[in-house]
Amino acid sequence: MYVVLGLHKILPNHLDEYLANVALHAANSQSEPGCVRYEALQDADDATIFCLFEVFQDEAAFLAHREAQHYKWWMELSRDWRDGPVVDQHVMDFVTPKPS
Fold first, then answer.
1. β-sheet bridge partners, residue 92
2. CA 45 and chain centroid, separation
3. Residue 94 in contact with residue 20, Cβ under 8 Å?
4. How confident is the model over 80-89, as pLDDT tens digits?
5. Which value, to the nearest 10 degrees, does the dihedral of the CA atoms of residues 46, 49, 54, 60 take?
6. What is the pLDDT of residue 98?
7. What distance in Å separates the CA atoms of residue 48 and residue 88, rounded to the nearest whole number?
8. pLDDT of residue 15
9. At residue 37, what are phi and psi to the nearest 5 degrees?
10. Which residue of 16, 23, 25, 85 pairs with 74 in a disulfide if CB–CB is 3.0 to 4.6 A?
11. 88 Rama class: left (phi>0) / alpha (psi -120 to 50) / beta
12. pTM for this entry
């Protein structure tokens, strides 16, 4: 498994646009053959902070995700909505049993 946690901050004036479209991006990502799980999470205390929780079968599936047309659409659409670059990104592996 290849797991990525990406934290980023959205500009307050683009929050509604982000929320309206991130679910579509997640659904498109979840439909990819190598995607195990793709979730968008919002911080409970600061509504402008989001975490994209991405689980792929392997690094190749993750790299294919980055080349998908819907990914490129999402990055172009949301480019100016972010308050700077990704705040933090981690590639992680499971300690507990991996999802099936």
1. 3
2. 19
3. no
4. 999 876 665 6
5. -170
6. 72
7. 15
8. 96
9. -160, 145
10. 25
11. beta
12. 0.83
How far is residue 29's CA from residue 39's CA, in Å, rounded to a whole number? 9
Question: What is residue 5's predicted lDDT score, i.e. its pLDDT?
Answer: 87
Q: Beta-strand (E) ranges in 1-100? A: 2-9, 35-42, 49-56, 88-92
Both tokens assigned to 8: 């980023």
Tell me which residue of 37, 42, 74 sits closest to 53, measured CA to CA: 37
What is the average pLDDT across 60-85? 92
Domains and CATH numbers, the chain: 2-92 (3.30.70.100)
- Which among 44, 52, 56 is positioned nearest to 74, based on CA atoms? 52
Each residue's pLDDT tens digit, 9-51:
999 999 999 999 999 999 999 999 999 999 999 999 999 999 9
